[in-house]
Amino acid sequence: MSDNRANFVVCLRNEGFEASLTIGKLYRVLPDTKARSESLVRVVDETSEDYLYPDELFAPVEVTHEVATALS
Asked: pLDDT by residue (tens digit) across 45-61?
């Protein structure tokens, strides 16, 4: 993922995280500069808690302000 991270990502793969991530689902991204520098992304997962995951499991998704508000 680029340094200009989206507020939302879609899960592309979930190997090793099947209980926490669903392929094809949108997840909210929380800012975490240190995680970004280590190729990790902090997302609010299926447990409704935020955890770090490898960023290669996701793709950034641009959504309108209205959609972002509805998803948050």
From this structure: 988 899 999 999 999 99
- Tell me which residue of 56, 6, 40 sits closest to 26, measured CA to CA: 6
Q: Could you give all domains of the chain from N- to C-terminal order, each with its CATH number?
A: 8-71 (2.30.30)
User: Is residue 71 helix, strand or coil?
Assistant: helix
Q: Which residue has the tokens 């680029």?
A: 2
The pTM of the full predicted model, rounded to 2 decimals, is: 0.81
Q: How many CB atoms lie within 10 A of CB 9?
A: 22
Max avg pLDDT among 1-5, 38-42, 63-67: 38-42
